[in-house]
Amino acid sequence: MNPTALAIHGGCGVMARLDLAEDEWIAARADLGRSLEAGWAVLTAGGSALDAVEAAVVVMEDSPHFNAGHGAALNTDGEHELDAAIMNGADLAAGSVTLARRIRNPIRAARAVMEAQEAVMLGGPAADAFAAGAGLDIVEPSYFTTERRVAALSAMKRHQAAGTAAKASEAEKHGTVGAVALDSAGTLAAATSTGGYTNKPAGRIGDSPIIGAGTYARNGVCAVSGTGKGEYFIRHAVAHEIASRMAYLGESLEDAASKVIHQDLKPHDIGAGLVAVGADGAITAPYNTDGMFRGWVLPGGRMFVASHAEVFDLATLPRPR
Ligand code: ASP
Predict the structure, then answer these.
(1) Ligand 1 atom closest to Cα of 173?
(2) Is the pTM higher than 0.70?
(3) Of 86, 113, 138, 164, which one's alpha carbon is 20 to 30 angstroms from that of 243?
(4) CATH of the domain at 22
(5) Is 281 annotated as a binding residue?
(6) Residue 206 is labelled as binding a ligand
(7) Does the pLDDT of residue 165 top 80, yes or no?
(8) How many domains does the chain have?
């Protein structure tokens, strides 16, 4: 049997210990674990990488601890505009939604866009209407709002008024969720979903739904899902750049991903991270911030989650009370 692999992220940033209460850290790690379990269950049952990344991302979209779906960031108008994309490395089929306001699980809508084979990207009210027509769960925009994101928006507005926006904590600013997988048929897939960043301009579209920027998969090469200041991921076509370095220069997954995060993006002084899986099942998760919510599964099925340097074996992780 071919190797299978799965890695996820829940956003990168400074993530100061004090940003979250201890029980919130525990709950966030537990949700990373549930995301891994959902994706891995698909792969071990012989399912597709596409189904695995979608299942893993849905868990994080439903969790209030990550900036996607329920718990997404608010824009400058105090509204949610959600972005998501999914890509199948087998045939380069891809789908994405942007500026969605009412789709409970934007990643499911991205998948439906892909399956419909008409458009790669749908945006705004048309994306919401398409999702409703596809039979997906539609919710009131207030479903996405959590107290933490409301407080984060007020804090960012205060920072903006005081000219100290750069000093705002990462927890106040952004995050994203994503998953990459390799299935037993050798197919790679990537999925990414985000609320963007707190206090973003209305109508702003990040890198997550842009194929080749925040999300990319190509069989025989790699699958990538990114997190960080999306404008720079778009400008560097980060996810595609990693695939290109591997394909054209013969670089390893780890080298290619590390060069893009630690060298190409360095002059911009932004927080950036990603998870990527190679055609051989190799996994890498570089980031240039203090932490990145992340998780991965070893070939035998052992699962690990982490937010900072310390790595937790899911089997011994305390579960929330
Ligand atoms: N990449 C996301 C965006 O720019 C935000 C993030 O990952 O922090 O929309």
Answers:
(1) 8
(2) yes
(3) 113
(4) 3.60.20.30
(5) no
(6) yes
(7) no
(8) 1
